[in-house]
Model the fold of this input.
Amino acid sequence: MVEVTREFADRVAEVAQLLTDDEFPDDVLHRLTGLGTELVPGGTAAAVTIATEQSGLTFAASDRRLDELHLAQFDNDDGPVVETLRHNEPRRIDDTAAERRWPAFCQAAAEASFRSCLVLPLQTDRQPAGAVALYGTDPDVFRGAAHDIALLFAAQGGTAVRNASLYGACRSMVSNLHAGLESRAVIEQARAFSTPNWASRPRRPFIC
Done:
C-alpha cells in the first residue's frame, strides 16, 4: 500500500519547477524520466516522447530498451504511446503477457521484461506536448494510488515541459539577437577600415 504524505505530494509538485536558470530543456526531459521511476511506485523505467506533426520522438529514456519499443510503435503506427499522442488520453497495460491490444508491442515489451505500462499525456496549453511512459517489471503495478500519483506526476511534468519549451525559445531568440548584433558590429568595423582616408575628409565646394 502506497502512503501519500504531504511531503511526498510536495515533492511531486516540485516537478513543475525542474528548470533552472542554467539548464537546457533536454536536461529537464532526462531528469523527468529519472523522477518518474523514483516517485511513481512500481515504475522501473520511463521515457518522454515529444509530439511532432507526424507522430512523435522519444527524446529521453531511462532505459535503452525503451528506444526500440517506442521506435517500433511509430514505425507500425500502433501502440499505447501512439494512441496517447493521437487521442490525448491515458493508456494502461496491467500485464503485457495477457493484454490483447497492441500484440506486437506487448510481445516486445514482455520479452524486454516489462509487464506493466502506463502512458500519460503531458498537457501544455490544452494540447498534448508529448507523453510520459512508465514501465514496471511486475504486473498490475500502476493501479490504485500508484495510478493517481502517476497522473499528478504527468500533470506537473507537462508544466515542466512547457517551461522548458518557453525557456528554449527565449534562449534561442536571445542567441540569435546577440549573433545579429555581433555580425552588425563586424560589418560596421569592416566598413570603417575599408573606407579611404580621403572619403572621410570634409569635401570642399567645387568651383568652375
The chain has seven helices and five strands. Confidence is low (pLDDT under 50) at residues 203-208. The domain at 6-169 is CATH 3.30.450.40 (Beta-Lactamase). The helical segments are 6-13, 25-39, 64-76, 80-87, 103-111, 145-194, 197-200.
